[in-house]
Amino acid sequence: MAQNESNIAVDLRGISKHFGTFVANDDISISIMKGEVHALLGENGAGKTTLMKALYGMHRPTSGKIFLWGKEVDVTDPKVAISLGIGMVHQHFMLVRPFTVTQNIILGMEPTGLFGAIDFLQSRKRVEELSKKYGLLVDPDALIEDISVGMEQRVEILKALYRGAEILILDEPTAVLTPQEIDDLMGIIRNLTVEGKTVIIITHKLKEIKHIADRCTIIRRGKKIDTVRVHDVTEQDLARMMVGREVNFDVPRGPFNPGTVALEVRKVSSLDGRGLPALKDLSFTLQKGEILAIAGVDGNGQTELAEVLTGLRNLVSGNIFLRNEDIKNLTTKDIIRKGLVAIPQDRQKFGLVLEFSVSENIILQEYDKPTFSRNGILLNDAIHDYSAELIEKFDVRPPVPEYKASELSGGNQQKVIIAREVSQNPDVLIANQPTRGLDVGAIEFVHRALIEQRDRGKAVLLISLELDEVLGLADRILVLYEGKIVGELEAAQADEQKVGILMAGGQL
Amino acid sequence: MSQLLRLRRTLKFPRALGLTLISIVLGFFVGAIVLLVAGYNPLEAYGIMIFGVFGLPRYISYTIIIAAPLILTGLSVTFAFRTGLFNIGAEGQFIAGSIAAVIVGHFVRLPIILHVPLVFVSAMVAGALWGSISGFLKARYGVHEVISTIMLNWLALYMNNYLIKLPFLHRVGTEASQKIQDTARIDILGVWKTSPEGREWRMENPFWGDILRSEINLGILFALIAAMVVWYIINRTTLGYELRAVGYNQDAANYGGIPVKKSMTVSMAIAGALAGAAGGIQIMGVTQEITVLAAMEGNGFDGIAVSLIGANTPIGVVLSGFLFGALRYGGTKIQPALGAPRELINIVMGTIVYFIAMPNLFTLLQERYFSWKKKRLDISLPKEAGGESKNV
User: Fold this and answer.
1) Predicted interface score ipTM higher than 0.90
2) 379-408 in A: which are within 8 Å (CB) of B?
3) Is A319:A268 a contact under the CB 8 Å cutoff?
């Protein structure tokens, strides 16, 4: 690509960012061309977001320079970034939920009329214009709390455009979207570049990069590895550059050899936290030696299903049989002791006591067993030895039982949880979004662990929002939509298209 | 490498200690400024305080006497805090304990070897009941413990005043209750020292005689033993493990099968028992009676500060309890000598707590001005593991 000076929208030169002794960005230089879609690829914690936060003025780089349109700029805070034409859509949306779409978009830059009153008519018109121009269809009068996540994202993008953004940074924009919504977003991004906008997308999903990006910069452990033209490389190449070694996407697995029914969910209904029906007459069976995946868009009852199965939420009606024994409404502890364990969806909230050491976390469900305590006194040597053994077996790093859980990386935290759950030799393992927020290397580890359980004849229930994960791991797929199972597919006959349609509430 | 990590872990403690010491110095510094502004010589005032605490054997024993219940109420706040509960109710639990101590101490007749433990246990049980009400209300109905313990403080105060007026407990012609039996007293040689032989012996042995002029008692032993027991429970038992897990992360504790609600009640009961014990030793060692309270005495509230200054650790609470005792006692000396208000001591204490409550200030100062101090142990972890942890 001809690096014509005037075509460079953003030029980052030698950006470094240190947090104490930790180097988040190490001398990174990237030139981003006007009108291109530039992907920043890297594992979690590689420093992608840190770099973009420097560009958006959310923190100052320790050293390095930022050039916009060939001129050096000093982005001291996001307000300056906005005035320079930079917009950022964060992973977590920052919208006022009881406000309308229009109110959110104009927030802080309201056009005012007589006596400083907000000119809503004009605002609404501007929003409609923008929305039409870029194909970002939204209802300007809808309340944020009534619209879908995909719509919220559009509002965020409109917000940035309304503020005059020429350069748009999207941080992990597809993490919360359905496959169809992702397609829509790709279309929107294309429209934006056609109109001359520059788009930077932060992601660790290779497929999306291949799909939408022109060029891609790979960052690993704070260092820039390379900037490549996406057409010239394969997904395998990208993964290797991102992780620093060959990544095996296809975990080998034994033949599908289902056994007897391990878990039966029969006509289960339950309410969500607000007292509204979340699960409606749900029934399915889980066999030994299979991975049964529950696919679905977030918020269709996944959380409640996992909670009901692990004893954290009571049923309204129905039964749950674990090897023919009804475990409905038992306490979590009893359910664990009967052989059903779970990898919770939020490992920092439910899975770990972050302030505890790794060994204290490993005994979290077993501290009162005679192996680890006698007469109410903890047996520290036994706990230490057992933890050290699991740490070695599951390759937790650093391999120190006394290390605080909060000091581990996300992948290693997940290893601790998996080590703890699997080591109790359960019959049923429930994995609720077990790879959420993990990088490619850790994902591979988790997938291997799940398949190993399956191959050992255990029953695995995988609840996942990641379609790739569902299609890659499952022997059987159930699609959850609005608290009901709306479809069942054998792995062999399932594809992205079919599952995607069911996930969105459609019919095959 | 694992040794290095362990070393770093143990190094954290001196850092906390260092911050606390700096806070204490700053507290005195601010106190000095206040004294200056008010027209007193701070050096003179602090000199009087130091002499007032260490000048005579008797002074030291007074400091210890005052420190003992503060250590216990400090432990009470610390214990609840480790379970994630804020026990503002040590004050009320203290009162409950002292009421029980007076009743059991006055009406029960037993030899000293049985009577003292019985009174002590009664005070603990009363405090535990008082504390567990708040724990139960929180666990069962979600009532915030700060609200319920404050309410229970007032209930305890009025119950104290009401009970004293009842004929069975009232000592005629006073604003106080009946006194406890001599068999329930833990002040050292309390009866003998006022007898003619005792007075004579004290004249002949000025050092011990001087100590005996104070209400020196066994309370401090009880407090130190309690600190050890609390440390052991928190760090070595399954109960402590459960309570800490609940304190750090209720959701994960629940998920792991720990009974969260029961833990809250148990934690508040134990916290209450510690504050009740403070009330008990105060009765058995010093006052021997309860008196009508016009206002809260502050034994429990000071426990909050003691706990904070002691970084919510039993050993820290013991040290800060002594500091607090010294300040409380020394502070009373500057009023008669200088005419400076003793409330000044409260300013010093308050300032210390404030400085301790903002450790980030010190981190900031350290980064800005004391970069030479940043010679931290640089531990190079395996990259895959250590490198990412910041971002999680």
Assistant:
1) no
2) 380, 397-400, 402-403, 407-408
3) yes
Query: For residue B230, what are its two tokens?
Result: 């609390």
Cα(A375)–Cα(B237) distance, integer angstroms: 9
Of A344, A341, A325, the closest CA to residue A261 belongs to A325
| Mean pLDDT per 10-residue section of chain A, whose length is 508 residues | 68 89 88 94 83 91 92 90 92 86 87 79 89 88 85 91 93 79 89 92 86 92 92 89 77 85 94 87 94 89 92 91 90 90 88 93 92 93 94 87 86 91 93 83 88 94 89 93 92 86 82
Closest residue on chain B to A403 (Cα): B5
Structural domain that includes position B125? 66-314
| Residue B340 to residues B34, B40, B49, B327, B329, Cα–Cα distance (Å) | 11, 7, 12, 14, 14
Q: Give the residue from B332, B272, B329, B280 showing the smallest Cα distance to B303.
A: B272
Report if residue B357 sits inside a domain: no
Report d(CA A427, CA B70) in Å as an integer. 53
The tokens describing B198, both together, are: 């005792």
Residue B382 has pLDDT above 60, yes or no: no
Chain A residue numbers touching B392 (CB-CB < 8 A)? 44-45, 408-410, 413
B209-239 exposure pattern, b = at least 16 Cβ within 10 A, e = fewer: bbbbebbbbbbbebbeebbeebbebbebbbb
**Among B260, B263, B391, the residue to mutate for chain A (most A Cβ within 10 A):** B391
Examine residue B382 and say whether the peptide bond preceding it is cis (omega within 30 degrees of 0). Answer: no
Residue B164 near residue B100, CB atoms below 8 Å: no
- State the burial class of residue A199 (Cβ atoms within 10 Å of its Cβ: 0-12, 13-18, 19+): buried
B283 DSSP 8-state letter: I
Phi, psi of A149, deg, nearest 5: -60, -40
B66-108: per-residue pLDDT in tens? 999 999 999 999 999 998 899 999 999 999 999 999 999 999 9
Structure tokens at B10: 């143990």
CATH hierarchy code of domain A5-243: 3.40.50.300
Write the CATH number of the domain with boundaries A272-503. Answer: 3.40.50.300
pLDDT tens readout for residues A301-320: 998 999 999 988 899 999 99
* Domain(s) of CATH 3.40.50.300: residues in chain A: 5-243, 272-503
Is B391's CB within 8 Å of A24's CB? Answer: yes
**To which H or E segment does residue A339 belong?**
none
Instruction: Quickly tell me which residue has 């760090």 as its tokens.
Output: B235
- Number of domains comprising chain B: 1
**Per the structure block, which two tokens stand in for A177?**
């979207």
